[in-house]
Amino acid sequence: xxxxxxxxxxxxxxxxxxxxxxxxxxxxxxxxxxxxxxxxxxxxxxxxxxxxxxxxxxxxxxxxxxxxxxxxxxxxxxxxxxxxxxxxxxxxxxxxxxxxxxxxxxxxxxxxxxxxxxxxxxxxxxxxxxxxxxxxxxxxxxxxxxxxxxxxxxxxxxxxxxxxxxxxxxxxxxxxxxxxxxxxxxxxxxxxxxxxxxxxxxxxxxxxxxxxxxxxxxxxxxxxxxxxxxxxxxxxxxxxxxxxxxxxxxxxxxxxxxxxxxxxxxxxxxxxxxxxxxxxxxxxxxxxxxxxxxxxxxxxxxxxxxxxxxxxxxxxxxxxxxxxxxxxxxxxxxxxxxxxxxxxxxxxxxxxxxxxxxxxxxxxxxxxxxxxxxxxxxxxxxxxxxxxxxxxxxxxxxxxxxxxxxxxxxxxxxxxxxxxxxxxxxxxxxxxxxxxxxxxxxxxxxxxxxxxxxxxxxxxxxxxxxxxxxxxxxxxxxxx
Length: 480
Description:
35% of the residues lie in helices and 18% in strands. By secondary structure, the protein is of the alpha/beta class. It folds into two domains: 14-213 and 350-479, Rossmann fold; 226-298, no CATH class. It is globular and about 70 Å long.
């Protein structure tokens, strides 16, 4: 009995179109190459087929000085559609800026003058199992689903892209959102190591999660409660549930940070050893910042899971809050539950993005494909391999992923590396204080990180003023 040979892999396909647009006041002609890149296994046979969208400007300056931004979203299991059609691409879907639902088709897809094509070429990468990307040949789909497997594939694609387009001299940046920030650090760490080392000029980290200890609510881990508290404060302030006091919002959020570190964390660590008097004092302070009742906080042992917060905080109004963006509200089947039925900030805009992306593919980019474009692949997230190689001599026990020490090493070994962390103040998926806490440790020098904040959530570009600020900050960061 002989093994069945793997299926033949068709030659990679590519679709090229030409366009014009005005970006930050600069008129440019550009082309988009939407196509596959095959990455080989150790035998030289195709192992992964990565589909990417490369927007390359004409006559925008010498290739050796023209930056390239490699952009991707997270999930794991998400295509790059959100950054592509929401913020960085030359066109974007226009959804309501005030956190109301996008409704039904037709949706408005308009030119995006804020697109940074005036300062850099753009490459949007879809990981295997999303978009049109997939594992091929003898590889199984799950062979590309894992922290290290994914980083290896992205590193291979970036090397191949730089070679194909003769751009090895160009300044290069990684731009990741959400889990994409984890990916960006993992890819940069992998590519900086070994004899074929490649350094990046900068890492643009939007809605940051590098240390998953800070966002995983579980018994015995007080870090998420502490790291989410300032976002609860920003949310309560946004919905008019608390008074910021004479210092205004910024002073109120700083007080929430101080309370989280100086009072809340010691109380959670004390646990059952905390006196009733101190417990009452902490509950009073939490109520002041979160808008929750002292009685409810006492019943939860001072712990505030983010899903329970989203359900409880506006229960009296009959609505629950969004996870990715707490500006969004929605109604559940009933109001007696402990957590929301769904995420209003997802279902309010998801349909618009899917329709806009598919329309852009078929009409503007002339992509003619017989497979659906997968904007999200839940199976990839469910089967994701979260194991990472630990430094020699460290414990081999399972642990939450933390790539922040890798970022610290990268910043020490490449002192010219620029790092930008962009944070939504109303993001309960990757809260801003978790990013600050991560940057304060892990061998990272926080003084070398550009940290910016926006009056919206995880996808801060859903909010028009925040989108404008985000793109202005990106241009300034690249030019710095």
